[in-house]
Design brief:
Oligomer: single chain
Strand order of the largest sheet: 1-2-3-4-5
CATH topology of the largest domain: DNA primase DNAg catalytic core, N-terminal domain
Radius of gyration: 21 Å
Number of helices: 12
Distance between the termini: 46 Å
Largest sheet: 5 strands, antiparallel
Low-confidence stretches: 97-108, 361-382
CATH class of the largest domain: Alpha Beta
Number of strands: 19
Number of domains: 3
Shape: globular
CATH architecture of the largest domain: Alpha-Beta Complex
Amino acid sequence: MIDTQTVKREHDILTLAGRDTELKRVAGTAGGEYQGACPFCGGRDRFRAQPGGGRDGLGFWACRVCEPKGGDVIAYVMKRDNCNFTEAIDRLTHHTPTNHAPRRTPAPPSRPNAPELNQAAALRVIEECEADLWSERCAPVRDYLRTERGLWDEVIRLWRIGYCSTGRRDEYGRTIAGLYVPRGIIIPNIIGGAVWALKVRLMPGVPFQCAKCKAVLTTPGRCPHCGENNKMRGVKGNRAALFGAETLPGMRAAVLCEGEFDMLLLNQCAGDLVGVATFGSARPNLDVATWASYLLPIAPLFIAYDSDDTGERGADGLMGLTQRARRLVVPMKAKDITDSWKAGADLRQWVVEALNRGHLPQRPAFATTPADPITAMPPQTL
């Protein structure tokens, strides 16, 4: 019988992956978190390794492009050496050398001018809010991300999602490293190793103030008093950028979503088939030309915006910019990608069918359902 726990205890994922790519420490969670170029698909900071990560605490790695679900040291050797489970165990047990050279795609395009956000402060916010999210008091937020947004824990960690908590119902944010951060789910936009923005998604059931009239509300969306849209917040120095930009290089096709959560869910389900990115809204406040180097090599460019008037207008605007763009209607007649997933849509199959219509070759499908179903918990004041 193979004692896999012993094998994993005797082999550190950081040492193993460090032979194939240069890694640097970026956080202190799960025994330290390390980032670097993916040894399999390329990219400057797609790959993550946590020596104390994983469900058993014996190491975890993932690439947010080619392997968002990630795995342990055994899974790493299986992918690196293109071998089966038994062969990977044998190589780890007997330290069998390999002549396999890691595959790499071309490096991503040079990123545009550096963001204005204070990088040291932004990284501090990310680290503190990650720690908040994985604390006991934020279990309802984790359940919301799992059950309402469909995200695996590994994906949440990989994209460094966090939560800014305050501990008091009447406090709507707090200051971290000199940056005032509204209370809510933190979605960092990290491109080329730099933090471009820290977007904050307000949490259902947790009080916040309307950005315009300052009324206290508990449901993100249109304010019933003044009509202001209250879903997202930000921090000082945020700069609009293409979220998911580094999933695009090396891909023949890509899907542009309307929002960050839709992007994360679709990338989780089909990130090995297509690049997935978002401008953050149907009518982005950024210069699309700035990010053209990421988008120009890709055809087709599927536009999967929400099925409402705003989404249709936004999709029409992008369709008018290039003949490579194609409208991709959200399945199940749902409003957006996440709602279609909730209605039971197979998002991976949806992408495969779209690609087949474009006559692009596909790789075999893999499971997209988490191994352990998670029960929802009601939101609380955090």
